[in-house]
Amino acid sequence: MLRLSQCIAFVLLICGWAEVAVAQSESAAKARGVLKERCFTCHGEGGANEGGFNYALNRKRLVRELIVPGDPEASKLFERVSQGEMPPDGEKRPAAEIEALKQWIDAEAPTFTAEVNRKFLSPDDMLAAISQDLGDANDRDRPFYRYFTLTHLYNAGFEDNELESHQQGLRTCSGD
């Protein structure tokens, strides 16, 4: 009899965890939708980097720099949105969007399902790519090739739009 009650308790516990996981997933999807719709155009899309912020859809960086999981009131991003400072177009934000961000942060800012998971690129991988590129270069130009790498940012989980911002900065510096 004890075993049956333990099994039932275990099943109920698993079901409870499943409900929490579904709720967190829904909250993350809603928050990501708001961030993509309202923030990403200026803060990430195509390398856009308004105000030095180009990672609107990068949860890891949001948590590291603008979000305090479990505490919306201490989160810079939520503060700016809830006070109507962002987006700066003067349009009143729908309460449902603000609430979606609040619920996501309250739920410990669970992971977005669309987060980037990449293969780690080792220094050997990077050097192999450079070697291949040099091998493809013509003999006349090869001595003038120089390389900058963003491998450390790629490996740190920066999203493609963030990497693009850095690439644009390098192109600007190099005169391309």
Explain the overall architecture:
The structure is a single chain. Helix content is 55%, strand content 0%. It has seven helices and no strands. With 176 residues, it is mainly alpha-helical.
Q: In brief, what are we looking at here?
A:
With 176 residues, the protein is mainly alpha-helical.
Overall mean confidence score, pLDDT: 78
Q: What would the principal axes of the Cα set say about the shape?
A: elongated
The amount of helix comes to 55-70%
Over all CA atoms, what is the radius of gyration?
A: 22 Å
Largest sheet: none
Strand content: under 5%
Structural class: mainly alpha
List keywords for this structure.
176 residues; 7 helices; mainly alpha; 55% helix
Task: Describe the protein's topology.
Layout: H1 2-38, H2 59-65, H3 76-82, H4 95-106, H5 123-136, H6 151-155, H7 160-174
